[in-house]
Amino acid sequence: MKLSGAQILCESLQKEGAEVIFGFPGGSVLPLYDVLPQYPKLRHILVRHEQGAAHAADGYARATGKVGVCVATSGPGATNLVTGIANACLDSVPVVAITGQVARPFIGKDAFQEVDITGITLPITKYNYQVHSAGKIAATIKEAFYLARTGRPGPILIDVPRDVFAEPADFQYPTEHVPPGYRPILQGHPTQIKKAAKLINEAKQPVILAGRGVQISGAYDELKALAETAQIPVITTLLGIGCFPGSHALSYGWAGMHGMAYANLAINDTDLLIAVGMRFDDRVTGNVNAFASKARVIHIDIDPAEIGKNVPVDVPIVGDIGTVLRALNKQVSSARHLEWLRQLDGWRGKYPNEVRDSSSLIPQYVVNQIYQATRGEAIIATGVGQNQMWAAQHYTFDKPNALVTSGGLGTMGFGLPAALGVKVGCPDRTVWCIDGDGSFQMTLHELATLVQDRIAVKIAILNNGYLGMVRQWQELFYKKNYVATPLSCPDFVKIAEAYCIPALRVEYREEVKPAIEQAMAHDGPFLIDFHVEPEENVYPMVAPGASLAEVMVAPERHHKKVSDSAKLPVSNI
Predict the structure, then answer these.
(1) Does residue 241 share a domain with residue 277?
(2) Could you tell me which residues come within 8 angstroms of residue 515 by beta carbon, excluding any fewer than 6 positions away?
(3) Given this model, what pLDDT does residue 189 score?
């Protein structure tokens, strides 16, 4: 059966189970858009900027576990995807990005809207392709989806010249197409698992540090079984939030620069750190030389390149998280660790993660009220900055993949298009975008996409009139020299209404709950502009170059830092 390259592409996407394409048309992909009406099962979402397409595909993939798909034309269309591709790469998200390219005879001749997008994206993709004949499209799609979702997931880019879309070729979809030499290790080495079990059984003060790899593997039950059997406290990374129920008795929050003080202190004093599906990012470790310095370290990850890269490891285990934990759990003995847990509970009592009392409108209170209104059942997508940290701190996540946020790249503007993708993938779930006034302005044009495609995302802007996280650093480390951080904002309510989205402005505590309830009751998108305390800071905080034990706690706790986690005395900053 002969089909055009564009038809082969659509047929192949359907074979891989793709349901949604986030894209923006242009000259080089017009042959593809010309045949899209022939494939009604492929829903196309027209974004307003290609970066939004990449972030929407990213959010869709995180929330559903499926591969997200985005499309852009050649030149600026392709380059506008780059930030979103890099974001997906650093956070291990399976995305397939399809770009148009100038026709084959013009490649390399600086033709109109030609860029070497495969060269540009080589460092930020798991793999990329340029397809030079229509007959190779089906095999390329098959291989791309396989690579995107297996092993350590990541983004794949497929660049297709315009004339290849139009070229006829025989279509037969391959049943299997595994790249030569690509064999992710799934089974952990038995000897290493035995060593790990021995350390766990002998440990007096163990801690599990769980990351996004647990969510990717779907190893929630296995992680919970390990924690409950050996009574090990579980701490997560930012991207690991939700892999272990936040309300569980053994949950001790998340660690790192703005993680809970008691989580950071636990890592500082542990004698055995069991790192599961995480990569020891600098925002988690603080001063890497002082990180978990009293501990033996077990590191379980599917990517061998991550083991030993940042932190020395005593027992490395390469493999799929779920597979390794199932084998490990068979060798782990029951334990109690009562004194250790009592010590952690003491730290949690002294440095609780709670919303402080305030007569003014503070952002932590807004996040907590969204949690109360949604009963913790929503999926939260965030921007980057203070809004992101407050959302992670003050919304309790009991379900996996319920916090969708940019971790490794820290991409401002991620929140709204990611929430859009999440809601498309999970239409029956309540989806909130919690964003800052700075981050929101980077991609607010995607409000039009919400309206055109009837995507019922609820939006909470924590509007403090600053680039808040940068301002906080200027306050703490640059003598309050607020250069380029005071932020002039439009009237977000009028902006929303211009897009035909109902909106409210909230300035007082007593207005928060009714506004959230009104947003929840509306069956479409809704925006609330919360005018919060301008110079509210995110605490706890580990300063750059400091150790986790030197975590600074909030001003209402005397603006101190913990200097000795064993005795908990404090000293002035």
Answers:
(1) yes
(2) 504, 506, 528
(3) 98
